[in-house]
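Q: Two folds, back to back.
A: First:
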Amino acid sequence: MRSRVPSDAQTLCEMAAHRSSKFKGWTPPPAIYHEMEQRLQYRSTHLELRKVLKNQWHALSASTTLVAAVGEKYQAQIEDFTAKIEALDTALETILKQDPAWAASITLLQTIVGVGPITAYWLVVASLNFTSCAKADSLAKYVGVAPVVKQSGPSLKGQGGIGPSGHPE
C-alpha cells in the first residue's frame, strides 16, 4: 500500500495557503500569565496541604491522648504553610506591579462586591486579561459560570444550572 503522506501534506499546505486570511495566528501568553498562573497553582496546592494538616491535627487533638511533640510538629507545619501562602500572595502583588494593564483589571474586578484579590487573579489569568473571548457571554461560558438549561428530550421540566463547560480551573 502506497503512503499518501506527501500528497496529504501538499493538500493541507494548499488549503492553509488558500484560507490563511481567515486564520488568526496564535500568540503565546505574556510572561505575566505564566508567572501568575504557576504561583496561583502552587498557592492552591499549599492551601490543600495546609487543610489536610489542620484536619489531621484537629482529629488528633480530639483524641484522649495527644503527644505534645507531635502536636507541635503539626502546628509548625501549619504555620510554615501559612507563611509560604503569605509569601506567594506578596509575590503575586509584586508581579502585578510590573504590568499596569493586568493590575488595572484586577483593581477593577475587586470593585465588585464579593470579588477579592485571589478571585480577581484567577479571572484575569483564566481569561488572559479578558483577551481570550470577544464577548461577555463567551467569557462566562469559558470560565464555566454561564447558566445552562439541563433538559432531556422534549421535556420542559429541566432547570437551569451552572454549566460544566469552560476552563478547567
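A: Second:
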Amino acid sequence: MIAIIVPNWNGADFLEPCLKSLLQMDHNDFEVVVVDNGSVDASKDIIKQQFPQVTLIELDKNYGFAGGVNAGIKYALNKKAWAVALFNNDAVADKDWLRRLEETLRHSNLAAAVTSQFLNIDGKTIDSIGDYYSVWGLPFPKGRGQARQSDAKVLEVFGASGGASLYLAEALQDIGLFDEDFFAYYEDVDLSFRARLRGWKIYYQPAAIAFHHIGGTSSKLSGFSRYHSVKNLYFVYTKDMPTRLYWKYLFRFWIAMVLVAFNSVRNRQAWPMFKGSLMALLLFPKMVLKRFQIQHHRTISAKEIDALLYHSLPPTQVKAIRAFGKLPLISNWLISENDGD
C-alpha cells in the first residue's frame, strides 16, 4: 500500500480539485490522507461531506509543512505502507502520476525518492523537476520557468520536491522524518541532503506529472516565506554540509546571505529576514547537535557529496548579481564565479 499525504492549512479553495485528481488516479492500492493543520475555514467540512473515503487527521494547530506531513508519515508507517507520497493541497495530479513514480521507485537502484515533473497550473511551464543545492548554500528548483518537457528521460537529481514526490518507507526509517524546526521551506532539501549523506539516490520521472498553484497557501501570510526561507538556509548548511565542504564553501555562503539580505531590503522584507536570521542564531546550538548525529552516520565521502552539488550560483540569483551593477568589482567576481566554477 502507498499512502498519499496531503498537508492542509485553510486550503478550502484548492482541496476539491486536488482530492478529486488523486482519487481518480490509475492505481488500485493507495490511501489518501489529509493532515489538517488546525484549519479554521471549511476544509474539514469539505473532506467529511464530499470525500468520505479520504482519511482525515485533525491536528490542534498549525505545525507547518514538516509537522503536518510527519503526522501523516507516522500514520502510514504504522499501517505498513511501503512508500509514502507527499502532495501539495494546491496541486492537481495527472491520472498516471502515482503509477509512474512507483515504477521508477521500484526499479531504480538505492532510490530513496522519486520526484515528478511539477508544472505550473497552466501546464506550459515547469515549477520544479527536482531540487538542487549550490555550493553557495542556496537550494533551488531545477527547471523553474522553462518549457514543459515532453521527451525527457529518468535521471538522477540531488533532491525531491516535497510538493509531489514518492518516498520509500525504508529510506525514511533510515534517515528520519522531516525536521520540524524548519516548519516550512527547504525541509524537503534537508531530507534529501540527509538521504544523500547516507548513500541513497533520488530520481526524476518526467512522465509523472502534476500541476501546481505556486504559493497557494504561503501567499496568505505576509513575510512568512522570507522568514522561514532565511532561517532554514542557515539550518541546511549547518546541519548537512560535510566538515571539509562546510569550511571550503563558508565564505561563499556568507556572500550568498548578503545577497539574500540585500534582496530582502529591496523587496521591503527586511524585518522577516532579520527575524529569520535571529531565530537561526538562537537555534544554532541545537542545529550543531543535529549536525553531529547526521555527520556521524554519513556513509559517503565529502568528495562524493561535492560532486552532487551545483557548482555555480543558482539561476534564480541572476537578478541579485545585476543589483551589484554599481559595484563592478563585486559584480564581475560573482558573475565569473557563476559562469566558470
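Q: And?
A: The chain has 14 helices and twelve strands.
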